[in-house]
Design goal:
It is a single chain. The protein has helices at 14-19, 35-39, 44-53, 94-109, 144-149, 238-250, 292-296, 322-326, 339-348, 391-414, 487-495, 508-511, 548-559, 597-614, and strands at residues 3-8, 25-30, 57-59, 78-84, 112-122, 153-160, 187-193, 204-209, 212-217, 256-258, 266-267, 281-284, 303-308, 330-334, 356-364, 376-387, 420-424, 446-452, 465-474, 478-486, 532-539, 563-573, 580-588, 618-619. It is α+β, with helices and mostly antiparallel strands and 620 residues long. The chain folds into three domains: 3-193, Vaccinia Virus protein VP39 (Rossmann fold), CATH 3.40.50; 231-260 and 336-517, Bira Bifunctional Protein, Domain 2 (BirA Bifunctional Protein, domain 2), CATH 3.30.930; 532-619, 2-Layer Sandwich (Alpha-Beta Plaits). The chain has 14 helices and 24 strands. 39% of the residues are buried. It is elongated, with a radius of gyration of 29 Å. The longest helix is centred in the middle third of the chain and has 24 residues, at 391-414. This is phenylalanine--tRNA ligase. Residues 527-620 form the FDX-ACB domain.
Length: 620
């Protein structure tokens, strides 16, 4: 099919003329000025003649902020739009030029094909991205990624604008005159459409539980992450590939048995030692009944569960007081780990000594916002029962197989070696436990950590702990070895994916980079996404411990995981009343979608309302 290309703001049409005659391309070259005004410019008449003779369409007096006015609906689907060195003219400052770009991007969205590109060339420093060298301060730049985001565009590529390689090109238009300007260090910014921000409706999940068909309302922050099927047989997702490579290597050393089929999303267990703040509670309330919509969806005969985000009836340590507080007849929670299932298999005696039992699936827990803290990730647990006294050799064999598999994966993907270490728990920082300690109280202490060396000094940095190893004595003769690995974190480190949220993106440009499940170094399709900072300060209730995990969870929920950092920047206590005030700084940023300043402002308002209603704070 013919590729339709629109060129805007041509000065002397020399750039358009350089593209004329390209096979399979239909050019439409436009200029803001009238034909009479352009005619006197050097080389303009020659370029226009060449374009028309080559079959291109040449239009004058075209306003780049009103593009749909110049093209009939059937002629608006351009595959590529070029706008080289846009400027309001004369001595217009950065604010006016930002406004020009914002209106241009909105206009482009109306005439661009769904998978089209917008190319914007800017002089060195104007864009305000890290690609500019030297980089201007953000407030003194055109903030191109932020203004483009307002129209639903993301920066997908950026490269030098090499004028010397464009045959016959000569820039013109300095201060609205027929004069050239300096384009040394200029950059071409390539934008593509973003998938829209997701506003998820409440979701009912239906499962089998205790031989009954039950339904429950999925916690809002997990709606786009439940039942995604990343580990299913037909999946090409990197976490599936990492799991397959691990189990293939381990099958060389152990007989394997997969036990994924019997793992329920919901777990019921003792509350002792389980902190409410870190658990997604699902409660069965006899007072509730399915709505009309739910009945029409065929769940009228099922037991309906609901999700409790923030139960106020907790003691000072955050433990739930179920009987006196919430009046819940029966309680469940989304599984925070697969280790209890592995332990249950061992306790029932339904295991084969010497066989490596494999459990895998997504696990869920509330956590603070940080680069490596995930409210959901895919865990794989390897369990092997051996004779007492041989557990150390089993651990060594298990870890060696894991090492070999990770080495092989990393070597294939990046061509370099990644060191895997087994570190004793006594020498490891407990702050690294976030991804594995959600259910720690129900098993024996962690003995080893499986770590990847992610810096040149040979030490483990934050986020490099990908697994834990535990042992437990069963009877007098058997010791069970448990090894738990975070598949998501392994995929991130091996493929060099900088943001865990990218694993859950709905943008097809992610999985397209891993055809047939082949692992490769990931190349982001959203470069230098804009970030926005908002502060919030409030008085916390008297004599009540502030629940920081709940605070972070509300931020995750109202923003759709767009909050990447929450920092306490100030605290103050009134000497007269003893009231305490906290001030937090939130940073909003998307890894895969266009996120505008206005959208973030709305998220911040929702966040303020949320903490006021749910945490009973008083906003300042």
């Amino acid at each position: 099919a013919e590729r339709r290309v629109l060129l805007l703001g041509e000065g002397n049409f020399s750039f358009a003329a350089s593209l004329c005659g390209a096979a399979g391309t239909r050019l439409v070259a436009t200029c803001y000025e009238s034909e009479e005004a352009v005619r006197g410019r050097a080389r303009a008449a020659e370029s226009v003649r060449r374009l028309r003779e080559g079959g291109a369409e040449v239009l004058f007096s075209v306003d780049c902020t009103k593009l749909k006015d110049y093209f009939l609906p059937e002629k608006r689907e351009f595959d590529c739009i070029y706008f080289n060195f846009p400027h309001c003219g004369r001595k217009a400052g950065v604010v006016k030029n930002r406004e020009l770009l914002a209106r241009f991007f909105h206009s482009s969205a109306e005439v661009l094909a769904e998978e089209g590109e917008v190319h914007v060339a800017l002089c060195n420093g104007q864009g305000g991205t890290p690609a500019d060298q030297p980089r201007r301060e953000w407030h003194n730049s055109w903030q191109i990624v932020a203004v483009a985001a307002g129209a639903g565009f993301i920066l997908s590529n950026v490269h030098p604008f090499k004028a010397e390689t464009i045959h016959g090109y000569k820039c013109t238009g300095y201060r609205s005159q027929d004069k050239s300007f300096c384009i040394e260090g200029a950059l071409n910014h390539i934008f593509t459409r973003s998938t829209p921000l997701s506003y998820f409706k409440p979701m009912i999940c239906e499962i089998e539980l205790e031989s009954r068909k039950v339904s429950f309302q999925v916690p809002q922050i997990l709606v786009d992450k439940i039942n995604r099927g990343f580990l299913e047989l037909n999946s090409n997702h990197p976490v599936r590939t990492v799991k397959d490579k691990l189990t293939a290597e381990l099958s060389q050393a152990f007989p394997l048995q997969n036990i994924d089929y019997c793992l329920s999303l919901l777990h019921q267990g003792h509350l002792n030692g389980v902190c409410h703040s870190n658990i997604f509670w699902i409660i069965l309330s006899p007072e509730e009944s399915p709505s009309t919509e739910e009945m029409s969806n065929g769940v009228a005969n099922a037991v309906l569960f609901s999700h409790v985000d923030f139960c106020k009836d907790t003691d000072k340590n955050g433990w739930v007081n179920v009987q006196e507080g919430c009046h819940i007849s029966k309680q469940y929670y989304l599984r925070p780990s697969l280790l209890p299932y592995a332990q249950a298999v061992i306790q029932r005696g339904t295991f084969l000594p010497g066989t490596l039992h494999v459990f895998s699936g997504p696990v869920f827990r509330k956590c603070l916002v940080s680069p490596y803290s995930m409210p959901v990730f895919h865990e794989v647990v390897f369990v092997c029962a051996v004779n007492r006294g041989t557990e150390n050799s089993c651990i060594q064999m298990l870890v060696n197989s894991i090492k070999t598999s990770i080495h092989s994966l990393h070597q294939t993907v990046s061509g370099s070696k990644l060191n895997v270490n087994l570190q004793e728990a006594t020498s490891f920082e407990t702050t690294e436990l976030d991804d594995f300690a959600a259910f720690e109280s129900q098993l024996s202490e962690i003995q080893y950590f499986i770590c990847l060396e992610t810096d040149t000094s040979g030490t483990c940095e934050k986020g490099s702990c990908v697994g834990v190893v535990r042992t437990e004595l069963v009877g007098s003769e058997l010791v069970v070895v448990f090894a738990s690995l975070n598949l998501d974190l392994l995929a991130l480190l091996i493929c060099r994916i900088s943001d865990w949220r990218m694993l859950w993106t709905s943008d097809t440009r992610f999985l397209c980079q891993f055809p047939r499940g082949e692992l490769r170094l990931f190349k982001s399709f959203s470069l230098y996404p804009p970030s926005y900072v908002h502060d919030v300060s409030f008085w916390i209730p008297d004599e009540e411990q502030f629940d920081e995990v709940a605070f972070h969870t509300i931020a995750r929920q109202v923003s759709g995981e767009m909050v990447v950092s929450i920092q306490l920047i100030d605290s103050f206590q009134q000497s007269e009343t003893g009231r305490k005030s906290l001030c937090y700084r939130l940073t909003f940023q998307s890894c895969d979608k266009a996120l505008s300043r206005q959208e973030v402002a709305e998220m911040q308002l929702l966040f303020r309302e949320g903490i006021e209603q749910r945490l009973r704070v008083t906003l300042r």
